[in-house]
Batch of 3 targets.
Target 1
Amino acid sequence: MDVHEYQAKELLGQFGVPVPKGAVAFSPDQAVYAATELGGWNWAVKAQIHAGARGKAGGIKLCKTYHEVREAAQNLLGKRLVTIQTGPEGKPVQRVYIEVAEPFDKELYLGYVLDRKAERIRVIASQRGGMEIEEIAKKEPEMILQVIVEPAVGLQAFQARELAFNLGLNIKQVQGAVSTIMNAYRAFRDCDATMLEINPLVVTKDDRVLALDAKMSFDDNALFRRHNVADMHDPSQQDPREAQAAEHNLNYIGLDGEIGCIVNGAGLAMATMDMIKHAGGTPANFLDVGGGASPERIATALKLVLSDAKVKAVLVNIFAGINRCDWVAKGVVQACQTVDVKVPLVVRLAGTNVDEGRTILAESGLKLITAETLAEAADKAVAAWKSAA
């Protein structure tokens, strides 16, 4: 789960990471009020979306007057901001963050990521923070500093000091940087985060170290014990289909293909997507209906997949162990009776009560394409899509 910048800064502040003064606003009037309450002479008005690269996309405005603050908020609120990380559809801006714009001398980069291959937390830092960090990582990899954290002991102070000195800071700045690096690590660890990015981490003219921007992602499977993080969820930033799937406890991820998939089990779902690619098609989604694939869940899943206009064929692949094929077949029939299915529907059933399930499909009177093996089902789904195109 992702959170907004202001929410990430709220969490970081609780762990002692210095952040600039700021306030969230949902209207231009609130933005102006926030600026007056914060004080200062310059403010940054920041669009709050679950994506980076906002500065390049015009999502961050520097303002010198209250009139400029109001104008910036008016121009951002209610719009869809498109960045290199959002895709062409962009993300809706429903709130802005008003922050006191403090002058600074240096822009640094600090990041933490859960490295699944190394099974460790990896700390990444650079002297060259800011909007061009991705290009710097590609063209000047020697500018990227990395530390692997041993989970048995956690990030050590000597590792933080080594990073701070290699960032080219003076003695006074190093002290603040070490504190920030250690406290940000604690926030990452104790909130069950999978990614934390502070870009830029700035050094002010009076040698303070501030997290000028922050981005955090969290382990969905740990949210049950992190209620303060779970409460920060903003469904407006999700794919509407993913939000709808979550309401029904379906595991759904939208993709860009043309073959919709309804499968039980994550492993079988991945294998189904691979077979679709092998057959010459592209999956439109990942959808795992889980172990209890009742008729209602199958019907909900089919409606969800068909809500994607890009879907030109649907493949239902169920291997029934805990499930029963007759339940699944009833769900397919029930969904087809309530939804106007205008695309070819391929159904492959295997396992418990498979004969009963196939009988239900055969006697339904629906124009269904059945298959006995996964390879056959994938071939038929791709062929049906191509013939309908």
Target 2
Amino acid sequence: MTACIVGYSHFPFGKHDEHDAEAMIIQVATDALADAGVAPDDIDAIYIGQFGRFERQEFTSSLVLQAADAFRFKPSTRVENACATGSAAVHQAANYIDAKRGRMVLVVGVEKMTALRGVEVGETLLTASYLKEEGDTEGGFAGVFGQIAQQYYQRYGDQTDALAMIAAKNHKNGCANPWAQMRKDFGYEFCRTESDKNPIVAGPLKRTDCSLVSDGAAAVVMADVETALSMSKAVAIRAHAHVNDYLPLSKRDIIQFEGCQQAWRQALQSANLTLDDLDFVETHDCFTIAELIEYEAMGLTAPGQGATAIAEGWTQKDGKLPINPSGGLKAKGHPIGATGVSMHVLTAMQLRGEAGDMQIPGAKLGGIFNMGGAAVANYVSILEPIK
């Protein structure tokens, strides 16, 4: 435990025609510094999480300098690791502080996805797959997870009910999140039923099983423990783990999410905790089938039994382990580079009792799982307030 979150900010996720990535970077960077009560001069390094490819301007590491002249000549690095880009940036900052390279770091996650048309978005996201084998997948990146869902169904049976319950849960939770893109409680029946408004997208996955195309940004200020204890808030990263798995789906049993399993195992062991010790988890529900498999990978259920967790209410907001009280990627939105940073912001808010209508009463330990590709880049963080 050497790195702490001492300030944060969150830009609403959605479609923002009037804001490009630069504008959102400037906004959240400025707001996070103000929330932490620090000046640009206090920052030793900057990490920008951005997947890119959606706008022409892909070299973005110095765009944060537009927020303050005092950022000039400070090291700033753009980080990319597919859909886990945001957590990759947070973990890089934690490693920088752990190595005692500096005392305070600014992390910004951003993405402007709606600059592209829908088909182009799918093709862009497909680059997070092994293109030699998966580059012609029908339905783009959604098609990859459609195949994963079909394989899961073949091994463990039809999961239509479970996926609809996950979608309904997350949409209901998203209604309480002021930064969420989709704040509408669709209900189980709508999510369960194929219709003109909820068509099949890929394999068995319907529109309500898929995360949203989003614009958005989030930022955190991080500091070492000694510095953090002198500030108004301090949420420690008690443990963090990052593991990568093979990129080709053909080289692994894809419905096991073994990289997710390993990352959770390492992080919990490092924190000297078990899953039962956590009060809630924000997990990477890019598709509802991903959340279902992640129940199993984190150890909440045995393989093939993930449906039990949602059917018996374990992962509801008032269940034994609330999953995605923010609404998750499903309702909150999924601006790729911002997602992992957003997860850390909202988890820190929960642990400080600042989550408003999203609040899990008495939450003191929160877990985060953010993945890039189909469980290729796997990041787990465990957060705990120390002030």
Target 3
Amino acid sequence: MWRRSMNEKVRYILTKEHGRQLNTVELIASENFASEAVMELCGSIFTNKYAEGYPGKRYYNGCENMDLIEQLAIDTVCELYGCNYANVQPHSGVNANTAVYQALMKPGDTLMGMDLASGGHLSHGAPPTLSGKVYNAVTYGVDEDGLLNYEQIRSLAKVSRPKVIVAGASAYPRQIDWSAFKDIADGIGAYLVVDMAHYSGLIAGGAYDSPLPYADVVTSTTHKTLRGPRGGMILWNNPDYTKKINSAIFPGTQGGPLMNIIAAKAQCYTEASTPEFQIYAHQIVDNAEAMCEVFKKRGFKIQTDGTDSHIILMDLSESKYSGREAADLLEVNGITVNKNGIPNDPRNFVETSGIRIGTAAETTRGLKEEDFEKIAYKICNLLK
């Protein structure tokens, strides 16, 4: 391997970020701290190899070891989630969703997903995105308590007749009833696609119900609560979907896979298969519940009045701070969260009336309920 010293400007920025991560309380719900083994593989010699295609069917020679590592990732993730098939090549969760839509729909077909303002994700049909432009997107929301109302969703599905229903969210703290979504989808002959990106680590650790018994296709990121590299994946059980999904990834929406990231995915799936990870996943939820109790005790409004996951959505609609102002204030004081809209938000999407708090990253650092209670009290004192 040829050697060259790191550019000093790059090293300076890297060192600054290292210090920031070391000295910040990380409460952004979509972030986590990957293991040294995962990060080592992200920066490994696997990055040097082009491997268009799939194991045993590559367009380049010299892919024997690429086949081995990708097949290991596929086998490990299928065992982890109890499914029959997996594609581990998506570069992100959005890439995974885009490919699944392409596999199951035609342009102009109706896609039904959770409204962005209610906690959904951009890739579930939001107007500025590809999914909102290529497909006829209709959205469902939440009720006055911030909860999914499955009968309202059923009524909307009967009227709009979507080809695909997407379940899953970016800022929904509670357990989603996957079986209710399956019943709704089956009732109109729609595909049920579950985006479990935020919950995938909790599901792997048995701390949140799995959608695999109910969904036609499941997509996810591999970071967030799963604590792997930045990337995506697609899981399914029906062999009839295999060619469609694999073709939608390559050559449909991507070129060569990132083999260094796929190697890191194999590592993270292995880590998530351990008893220690199960303890970790349950601790994430216990820590979130402990924070919620402090917030409520101190008079702060929490959307859905609690959480079943790593996510806490604090409602600041009656506060002197907007979500942006609150997030900025916390950052100055060594705590990172993100501003977030709330259902029926009176402020615009730049300011927002909420902050989203997550417990996965600091749980990785070994913090327990009492530690998160102290952090919650500090947040309350800063935002009072």
